[in-house]
Amino acid sequence: MTEVADKIRQKVYEKFDRRCARCGSAYMLHVHHIIHKSVADKDTMNDEENLILLCHNCHMAHHNGGYAIKAENVDGKIRYRFSDSFLFGDKDEPKT
Ligand SMILES: [Zn+2]
Ligand SMILES: [Zn+2]
What we know:
By secondary structure, the protein is of the alpha+beta class. Helix content is 19%, strand content 26%. A hairpin with a 3-residue loop joins strand 4 (77-82) and strand 5 (86-88). The chain is globular and about 30 Å long.
C-alpha cells in the first residue's frame, strides 16, 4: 500500500486541528510525508509520525525547495521545525 489509510489521514487532520502546521491556514489541506515517499522506508512512510498537515501553498513551497521540514522528538513530544524558523508542536504555544 502506498496510500495513506483514511483512518491515519483522519488522525493527522485532528492532530493538527485541521490547520496547516506551518501557517495555520485551513484552506486546501494536504497530508505530506516528512520523509518523502521517494526515499522513505515503505513500511513506515505512512505512519502517523511521518505525516504532517500542510496547506496547498506551504506544501507546494516545500516541494519546490522553499524550505525544509524536520520532525524532532523533544521530551517525548514531536515538534516540527521549518527551516524558515517556524516552530510547531505544542497547541498551547502562541503562534507568532
Ligand atoms: Zn500553510
Ligand atoms: Zn508532500
